[in-house]
Amino acid sequence: MPFIITDPCIDTKDTACVDVCPVDCIHPRKDEPEFATATMLYIHPEECIDCGACVPACPVAAIYESVDATPSHQQDLVEANAIYRVGDAEAVAKAEAIVKTHVAAHPDLMAIPAAERQAAHAKS
Ligand code: SF4
Ligand code: SF4
Question: Residue 85 Cα, ligand 1 centroid: separation in angstroms?
Fold first, then answer.
């Protein structure tokens, strides 16, 4: 089961996870053209080998180890991770649209600083 990036990554996007991923399955990287406009980063579900290295690397606790471990208010972002593909403009647009809908649907949670949001999600 793949790891999932969720909303504390939005506007954090520091790529600490990219630097530790042994199979380079987190996109977009800083050297990929999509990086400048990406709202967050995404884990390719078929390429992720479930090593767990990215979880402690994330400064805002945005990464969950499975779909089941992902909080209910973040489940829409499971699909965003699943469909995002660097180099595929349609897939990128679909994933980013899911993220934008997510942000619009959760103004209360998105108002919480990214580093504190995982705890807020856990309570909701
Ligand atoms: S769990 Fe491992 S392989 Fe999967 S995204 Fe994280 S670092 Fe990469
Ligand atoms: S380390 Fe966390 S915040 Fe940084 S890019 Fe990866 S998922 Fe996003």
Answer: 16
Contact 124, 73 (CB under 8 A): yes
Ligand 2 pocket check: which of 30, 32, 41, 99 to mutate, most ligand atoms within 8 Å of Cβ?
41
Q: 49 in ligand 1 pocket by Cβ < 6 Å?
A: yes
- The domain in which residue 9 lies consists of 4-123
Q: Is 74 helix (H, G, I), strand (E, B) or coil?
A: helix
Question: What is the Cα–Cα distance from 35 to 105, expressed in whole angstroms?
Answer: 24
63 within 8 A of 3, measured Cβ to Cβ:
yes
Give this prediction's pTM: 0.95
Distance 19 CA to ligand 2 centre (A): 10
Ligand 1 centroid–CA 1 distance in Å is 11
* pLDDT band with cut points at 50, 70 and 90 for residue 124: low
Average pLDDT over every residue of 47-51: 97
The CATH number of the domain where 100 resides is what?
Answer: 3.30.70.20
Domain total in the chain: 1
Instruction: Return the DSSP state at 33.
Output: G
